[in-house]
Design a protein that fits this description.
alpha/beta, Helicase, Ruva Protein, domain 3, five-stranded parallel sheet, about 450 residues, Rossmann fold, 19 helices
Length: about 450
């Protein structure tokens, strides 16, 4: 901590003075600013190692400061100072790039401890990243979790294609992990040290998307007060991830096709083309072949991006991956949140395996992060959302009524037993088949018949 340059941004002069005394006693160089706008100017000019920033300030509040500072590639750690009633706002600031927060009123030891912990964690993260780059450990796919045969086959193909600049198309439902696989392909490629740049083609208005991708020259359109490089230029030498490419307007599909074929781009309003060296990975939740058939997507562009096609199955089709994914997400968020988590009880794993997960892997991660925060580490069934508990509960054979026909009630009983066996074995079909005294093939047929997959 000694020797660090720290910027304090707060509209209260007394607090700035007090924090200055505390930090200077620890051997730090202290800079101050009275609001977010001034804080941005000081941060950009002085490049501090760490920033202490208040939430509520005139001109530009703490969340606005974090968003603008981080979007401008600011590298300092940011710790928010949250008064009573602003904790949720501080958490929102963390979502946008802040590292941690302290609640007012605080004492000197609390501030110093928070700063030291943040700096130690950041130093450790950088050291791990440096060592990984130095010794070349891993294949780039170490952080993509999945043990099911179908998913391992997908990763096998992805790892083989990663070494080449071939264009890849990744399809699958929303939340299946398309961007995670795209990032793994980048990490496993010779381009790993160059940028990975992602854009959601469906999230940007059509009139801005061309400039976002290819850049623009000063004066190219109203509001273009200076020239700006696009994402193709930003990703030069690396990988450009075009998420939801099926949402791209037809007028831009032509220009994208030319960029992929010619490896050249022309900024909006520009008179000269620029050469680019970019590996493109595209993704979509749409059926692009059907989009081509209905003339909503260009056939020539479809064949250009669909050189290697990876289709990610929904989570409900690879339930055996759920326990490993749950463990991975708990471990990751426990570290990030500073919470010690206990292993999940088998009953909870059974509920997670039986739930259909319409939001796929993204929904599973969100559910577990929520449960971890609510529980403080010891997750029980009550910490899961009600829709997960209720939808995941095993089917109960109704015993009221006058229908005692074994023939009519037998399928319901069979479905109940299969659901219980899958829950008890965390989705492992081979072990479930042993419990049910069925062949694995017969169990697979019955899972499909009863729509348990």
């Amino acid at each position: 901590m000694s020797g660090s340059k720290i910027l304090v941004i707060d509209d209260e002069p007394g607090l700035r003075h007090t924090l200055g005394l505390i930090l200077r006693d620890e051997g730090c160089e202290v800079l101050t600013a009275g609001d977010g706008e001034e804080g941005l100017r000081v941060a950009n000019a002085e490049r501090p190692d760490l920033i202490l920033c208040d939430i509520r300030m005139p001109k530009l509040d703490g969340v606005g400061f974090v968003e603008r500072y981080c979007s401008g590639d600011g590298e300092a750690l940011i710790i928010m100072m949250s008064a009573y009633g602003t904790t949720e706002t501080a958490i929102e600031a963390m979502r946008r790039g802040a590292y941690d927060y302290v609640s007012k009123p605080f004492d000197a030891d609390e501030v110093i401890l928070t700063i030291k912990k943040a700096q130690e964690r950041e130093a450790l993260r950088r050291e791990v990243r440096r060592l990984r780059a130095q010794i070349g450990t891993g294949t780039g796919f170490d952080e993509v979790v999945g043990q099911s045969a179908a998913f391992r086959e997908i990763l096998s193909v992805a790892s083989r294609v990663a070494a080449y600049p071939t264009t890849v198309l990744i399809t699958g439902e929303s939340g299946t992990g398309k961007e995670a696989v795209a990032r793994a392909i980048h990490r496993g490629s010779p381009r790993a040290e160059s940028p990975f740049v992602a854009i959601n083609c469906g999230a940007i208005p059509e009139n801005l998307l061309e400039s976002e991708l290819f850049g623009h020259e000063k004066g190219a359109f109203t509001g273009a007060e200076r020239s700006r490089d696009g994402l193709f230029t930003e990703a030069d030498g690396g990988t450009l991830f075009l998420d939801e490419i099926g949402e791209m307007p037809p007028s831009l599909q032509v220009k994208l096709l030319r960029a992929l074929q010619e490896r050249r781009i022309r900024p909006v309003g520009g008179s000269r083309e620029r050469e680019i060296d970019v590996r493109v990975v595209a993704a979509t939740a749409r059926d692009l072949a059907e989009e081509v058939a209905t003339n909503r997507f260009r056939e020539d562009l479809y064949y250009r991006v669909n050189v290697v096609h990876l289709h990610l199955p929904p989570l409900r089709a690879r339930r055996e991956d759920i326990p490993a994914l749950a463990e991975y997400f708990l471990r990751r968020h426990s570290t990030r949140l500073g919470i010690t988590s206990a292993p999940l009880h088998p009953d909870i794993l059974g509920l997670l395996v039986r739930y259909t997960w319409p939001g796929n892997v993204r929904e599973l991660e969100n559910v577990l992060e929520r449960a971890l925060v609510l529980s403080g580490g010891e997750i029980t069934i009550n910490h899961l959302p009600s829709h997960v508990r209720e939808s995941s509960s095993p089917f109960r054979l109704p015993m009221d009524g006058d229908d005692l026909s074994v023939k009519r009630r037998l399928p319901a009983l069979e479905k109940e037993l299969i659901a219980r066996a899958l829950g008890r074995t965390s989705g492992n079909r081979t072990r479930a088949a042993d419990l049910l005294e069925l062949s694995t093939r017969a169990l697979t047929y019955k899972i499909q018949e009863y729509e348990l997959d």
